[in-house]
Amino acid sequence: MASAPDRLLRRLEWQVVRRLDGQLQGSYRTVFRGTGIDFADLREYTPEDDVRHIDWNVTARLDEPYVRQYTEDRELTAWLVLDLSASMRFGGTGEGGAGRGKDTTLTELAVSLARLLTHGGNRVGAILYDNRQQRILPPRTGRLHVLRIAHEIERAVARTAEAGATDLAGMLHLAAATARRRGLVFVVSDFIGEGWEEPLTRLTFRNEVVAIRVVDPIELDLPDLGLVVVEDAETGEQMLVDTGDPQFQQRLRAEVDAREAAVDAALRRSHATAHLVGTDEDPLEALVAMVRAAKRRRR
After folding, report:
1. Does pTM top 0.85 for this prediction?
2. What residue ranges do the domains of the chain occupy?
3. Over its length of 299 residues, how does the chain's per-residue pLDDT go in tens digits?
């Protein structure tokens, strides 16, 4: 009998790879791609260009901005940086999610991305991170490697995550130290934590970074459930609240709006390409939308 990761991979291959085959990879060019390392030419800067590619010496001499162009690598090295902290265990049946928790959404996104990228001959590595344990899977290609990533995610999710605020800065520092070659990095997290903007910005200096933020709808809009005990997934702190109290709802809405605005602003400042995926969404449809958005940006 096939294992759960194997069944998941088969289902995702059927639903995603066949649908996106030919869109994600054409010849050796990818929609999501890292910057090539071989200098090819210079041309005038346009507003769509990445400011990191500006050649400041030439710009100073000609008094007009110029950017460097690079040849694209025929093989891409991609990394999946996966937040498996306590807050990512939220959602699913019994906790306000529509049958899918944030960790389940993360798993489906990660396995789909790994299979899509390796399907085109690219190498994919993974960093599985919580505050207590970190697992690094070196970049490789092939279906068996994707199956191994799926197995390791399943094992990590089955473990009890350590309580405490998520050390996202530590996760991103580990990613920067591990992904030494220029490439593509997917960071899948809820970005609940402090101090992650600076290391995320540093990660974008050398890599193309795609930040996929996973949220549960109940984190954004708490319905009227009457008197409930609310527990912080990371600190374990519990509080009895009346979710039907208009003043409570007003204060909560203000806090959620302020947090969302702060996270969105930090992601923009980091120069990472950001996507929001809800646990009530189909992760595969979300991935299709990401690919289409990336193709529009490149055009």
Report:
1. no
2. 4-26+75-216+272-298, 37-71
3. 567 777 777 777 766 666 665 555 443 344 454 444 555 678 888 876 777 778 888 888 888 888 877 655 556 789 999 999 888 988 764 344 445 789 999 999 999 999 888 887 889 999 999 888 899 999 999 989 999 999 999 999 888 766 667 899 999 999 999 988 888 999 999 998 889 999 999 999 888 899 999 999 888 877 767 777 776 656 667 777 777 778 878 888 898 899 999 999 999 999 999 999 999 888 888 888 887 777 676 66
Rounded CA separation 5/150 (Å): 5
Q: How many residues does the chain have?
A: 299
Task: At 78, give phi and psi (nearest 5°).
Answer: -120, 150
| CATH number, domain 4-26+75-216+272-298 | 3.40.50.410
Q: Which whole-number Å values give the CA distances from 196 to 172, 201, 277, in the listed order? A: 7, 9, 19
**3-state percent breakdown (helix, strand, coil) of the chain, nearest 5:** 45, 25, 30
Beta strands of 38-156 (E only): which ranges?
38-44, 66-71, 77-83, 123-129, 134-140
Collapsing DSSP states into helix, strand and coil, what is residue 245?
coil
- Residue with token string 């309580």: 163
Q: In 6-76, which ranges are E strands?
A: 25-26, 29-30, 38-44, 66-71
Buried b / exposed e along 178-207 (16+ C-beta atoms within 10 A): bbeebbbbbbbbbbbbeebbebbbebbebb
CA 79 to mean position of chain CA atoms: 10
